[in-house]
Amino acid sequence: MVSAAPFIAVDWGTTNRRAYRIENGEVVATERDDRGILAVPAGGFPALVAELRARFDGLPVVMAGMVGSNRGWHDAGYIACPATIEALAAGVVTPEEGVSIVPGVCVDTKSRADVMRGEEVQLLGAVAAGLAPADALLCQPGTHNKWAVMKHGAIADFTTAMTGEMFALLKAHALIGSEMAGEVDAGDDFRQGVEACADADLLAALFGVRAASVLGHRAPGAAAAYVSGLLIGSDCRARITQPGQQVHLLADGLLADLYSAAITIAGGQAVVVDSKASFVAGITRIRNLLP
Amino acid sequence: MVSAAPFIAVDWGTTNRRAYRIENGEVVATERDDRGILAVPAGGFPALVAELRARFDGLPVVMAGMVGSNRGWHDAGYIACPATIEALAAGVVTPEEGVSIVPGVCVDTKSRADVMRGEEVQLLGAVAAGLAPADALLCQPGTHNKWAVMKHGAIADFTTAMTGEMFALLKAHALIGSEMAGEVDAGDDFRQGVEACADADLLAALFGVRAASVLGHRAPGAAAAYVSGLLIGSDCRARITQPGQQVHLLADGLLADLYSAAITIAGGQAVVVDSKASFVAGITRIRNLLP
């Protein structure tokens, strides 16, 4: 399943861009910069990609992420769930010779709408690489946290929660923002937050942060980890519907720690998966499926 | 129960100030300005109150709200639940002759913390005036929405939800803020939001607003009423725990319409109560209880 032909894989998001030179399914060189799509002027994509390719011996490039959105280079659309890696490869658009852009994935039913762009490569790659089972619940923590239900190796359904964005909003702009100056870790304050959201009453729990400070229940400014626990806990509890539910977590570092702790408290079982290896496996598989 | 002696009642909040000349339990003159406590310079309260009293024949003044907070003139503290109107009157502080400041009310147990300051006069006044039963669930919609459980005419317990603040935060600062340009009313979009939050999965429902716009399920920018429905619906569903639950709503205009609709969809029954009459009844009762 490993291609010998080298290529460049690009994960091009809203604020960052990562490029990998991949040979025989292995990353042999990496670049990362802050040229997310919002930093690219109108009409600027062809020149930027030409520069990138020039640095990598003119290799063909396969790109995923917001570069394929209506604010990117070329709108690659969305593949509706259930979405397989073959369907993604078949949906690739080619704005110019040697450049492929992978479509996103959507839920588009009468009752629900959801979209992802970029995460699908990691999700399908995790299964393709054997890092997660073909039937599994996968979680990709972040600004807009994705929870994907994989069935027979396809993305059968998924849900996005604005967990990370909500934390940033509250910290920067809410009345309780001044209570959120401290560091976040997976310690006691975080765990108390996860416990406290068990009644799904998030709007009240958040005001409780202010009241706890006013009444001296918590030191002023010390609530960042607790609020993180409230939000991540609410997110996990909404997704973990049966005791012992296994969640494959595409994360590392602090986010892996926080979600692992919250999943456990919510009655699930977390398995951390290498998200970079998943991306590389997924994009390599797509490359191999291209004509 | 009506005092013949005239006095000035002041509802002094964070951003606004309202003053009423009350005679025989009736408002005979009203003033409203934007001199909330944040607009008062350090040490500025005595002069402002002296000016106010000079305009009202030097009558005694009874004040409630943030003027009694640690950022106001004099910290009047909190009365712990269950809080009666007699306990509030007994807790009044007197920074100078003829000036009374009513304390707030708190929930201060090992497991829960909550605070109110200003709302307690309206809540206890609604019962005192016979506008709400002595045993009732009262709701005061606003930036920090208060839900009070009244028992035997006292505030037995209460919960604050940051419903109004969350709407403002999302509109001003979230990715979905650009979807929230339209007007809010209690029509179909609002009702759909109330329905959609039935699974208590607020963080996912909010991201769904973005996805619905991207996939063309809703016109771009048209989601303000839907988001309002999600938030107010979540708030009401967390509070209405039995079918037919009666909620006495201290609100008028749009907020009364929105909360009445959401309470009904959530299985409750809304009764709108005159919030101004409740405040006047409450502050008059407190005045009559002062030595």
Describe the structure.
The structure is a homodimer of 291-residue chains. By secondary structure, chain A is of the alpha/beta class. Chain A has two domains: 7-161 and 275-289, Nucleotidyltransferase, domain 5, CATH 3.30.420.300; 163-273, Nucleotidyltransferase, domain 5 (2-Layer Sandwich). Chain A is built from nine helices and 14 strands. The first copy, chain A, has helices at 45-55, 85-90, 119-128, 163-173, 188-196, 202-214, 224-239, 253-265, 275-289; strands spanning 7-12, 17-23, 26-33, 61-65, 78-80, 93-96, 99-101, 104-108, 113-116, 136-140, 145-151, 154-161, 246-250, 269-273. In chain A, the strands form three sheets. The first copy, chain A, has a six-stranded mixed sheet with strand order 3-2-1-4-7-6, with helices on one face. In chain A, α8 links the parallel β13 and β14. In chain A, α7 (224-239) packs across α8. At the A-B interface, β8, β9, β12, α4 and α6 of A face β8, β9, β12, α4 and α6 of B.
